[in-house]
Design goal:
Length: 258
Amino acid sequence: MMDLLTRFVVAVPIKEETKEVIAKIILERWFLLFGPPEGFLSGRGTSFLSNVLQDICRKMGIRRILTSAFHPQTNGAVEKFNIALASYRYNSAVHSATKCSPFRAMFGVQAFDFGVDYNLRFRQESDPTREDLAEHVKELHEERTKHSWKAKETEKKCYDKAVSEVEFKPGDRVNVFYPPDVLGVGRKLSTPWLGPYRVQRRLGNVRYLLEGEQDPAKIARVHVNRLRAWDERFEETGDPRDGVFPDSRRLLRLSRGI
């Protein structure tokens, strides 16, 4: 909850997001603490549209204001705070890959945790010297590197199990995937698989060098995930040059049979 004039924020952790819980927190932690505001702006979540909260605002003479659907800029100040809060929570939480919080790995000390009652006046351990802190950070980085490599190996094994290896030979005819959204054409009006293109050669483990079948001068370097064996059902031929996509107007005409 935020006061838009002063940008003062009250953040309250909750275990469940029900209309009763939300209404109780807003009433006790804001309205009864600071007094009823002239207006109350909120999103369109079911918890904020409940009759309970509407009754509270009506009885206290508070004007209810709702954000526009799919337009978070209406409540931009709160959205910015949410980004900052989410970033802090991410940096202070233990990462599954490194077994350490990003904040501790970066600065050598654990970030202040909102859920821990810290005694700021008396510390059980003395403040580390600059040399001790530098050595501690070095050890943390070495340990994090080991954990990161182990996590990458685990991810690779899971990926390899789910994806079957596909290989193409020079001269093979293939389709290339172009997302309809990128082409500027609605999903219902176009096919995302364009071609045919011919494989010139393989580049490393996951990329292929292609040429346009009708115009060999048009060259593209394409990831294998965007390729599949040529299917004659798709006759459209796009421009395979890097960064250049088929003309959306021509695709629209083709999809309509014009």
